[in-house]
Specification:
Blueprint lengths: L2 H30 L3 H71 L3
């Protein structure tokens, strides 16, 4: 086998390997290609996912809105509590003053 025959044989072997690899690639691609039914299923699942994400976003927005409302109500209740406590403190002081006044008036002289 001379040099020219060796080069030709190597070229034929490499070309044959290329063609076989290309054919195997095509066969694998055909076998692993998703079917129309599986694509429809994937589309349906993607649509459901989008709907679920939208519902989650709406729920989060409602939750944040409700939380803000409750926080404002809590702040208002806190202000009312503070005002009531102040009024109670003042009332207790007045009651104490009235008791002292009554005791002074009723005390025997």
């Amino acid at each position: 086998m001379n040099r020219t025959e060796f080069i030709a044989a190597t070229a034929v072997i490499l070309f044959t390997a290329f063609v076989v690899g290309w054919l195997v690639g095509l066969i694998v691609q055909r076998l692993t290609r998703p079917t129309r039914a599986s694509m429809n299923e994937l589309d349906r699942m993607a649509q459901q996912l989008h709907e679920a994400e939208d519902a989650r976003d709406m729920a989060v927005a409602r939750l944040e809105e409700r939380e803000a409302e409750l926080m404002s109500r809590l702040a208002a209740a806190d202000v009312d509590l503070q005002a009531t406590m102040d009024a109670l403190r003042i009332s207790r002081a007045e009651i104490e003053e009235l008791r002292d006044y009554i005791e002074k008036k009723l005390a025997p002289r």
